Amino acid sequence: MIPCPLCRGAADQQLGQMALSRIGEVEIRRCAKCSVMFSHPLPSPEALRQCYASEYLDAKGKPAGYFNYVRDIGPARLRDGRELGATLSFVPGRLLEIGCCTGHFIKGVADASNWEVHGLEISEEAAEYGRTRLGVEIAVGNIEGVDLADSHYDIICVNDVLQHLVAPQAALAKLYLALKPGGKIQLVMPDGSFDVLPFVREAKAGGTLVSPHWHLFFFPQAAIRRTLAETGFRVMSAERSMALSALVDLGLFKPARGEFDRKSRGLLAHPRRRSRVMRALLDLLERVLPSLGLGHESGSGPANSRSAEL
Questions:
Q1: HSE-up (13 A, CA, CB side) for residue 96
Q2: 3-class SS shares of the chain: helix, strand, coil, % to 5
Q3: Is-contact 2 33, C-beta < 8 A?
Q4: Where are the domains of the chain?
Q5: Which one of 57, 70, 142, 266 counts the least CB within 10 Å of its CB?
Q6: CA 185 to CA 155: how far, in whole Å?
Q7: pLDDT in tens, 18-60
Q8: What does the alpha-carbon distance between residue 16 and residue 99 come to, in Å, rounded to a whole number?
Q9: Cα–Cα nearest to 66, from 80, 52, 46
């Protein structure tokens, strides 16, 4: 029996194979007890750290990460941070982002508020960029291996990170302790039920997909809510976004320029390459599809006095 890393239930069902860049081929297993899907075997924290070298930020078309994070993703993350910062501008506080990459998001929060912001990032190159070019405080490390002060942060943001971790449940338990009473965790992640489909589809065709983004866990909606509850959180709000990614996972929509890791983000990141009719259709789909249960889970929210937003 192969035990589930989260609940220790039997994970004997193999859904397919996944080739993790720089790590090698692994199996994708589903737990019969909690329905979580995960890569087996899981890489060591040190092996995972080696994946996030400078090429991760600028892979130049290789299956190793972003095409160019600073150019393609950074401006949007800066805007997201400023939007959040504007809602915090009249109240002092501390914010931590786990997996902050170059720090564009926390820079945006700092620009639009008087909050104290901190970042934690596994990539030394990304952290150095944020410190020297953006002037934000970023510590280098993996959440599993760092110490966080108890009851220190008002908000912790975990944006598209939890599925990358070797021990996501332990990480959530650590973040719970790091939040002040009444604090919130903002969690954004793919719906594992859709995220795993390209690998399953490829396995049925007799092939193996290369995963450039090293998703180690695939959480269905019910599973992530249960995991949050088990680590002390109470979900206060939840919404779905990036619904077009679900269509890509289902095989009904192709990514722009064949960029598997970006999925539908590529379609929206380069709108000038699309006609006005296509842009209007994409915008409409993004509004309608979440009502059908398609898209990525995102949100914020306290158990006891701490909360999680999904």
A1: 22
A2: 40, 25, 35
A3: no
A4: 243-294
A5: 70
A6: 6
A7: 887 677 889 999 999 999 999 999 988 777 777 776 566 654 5
A8: 27
A9: 52
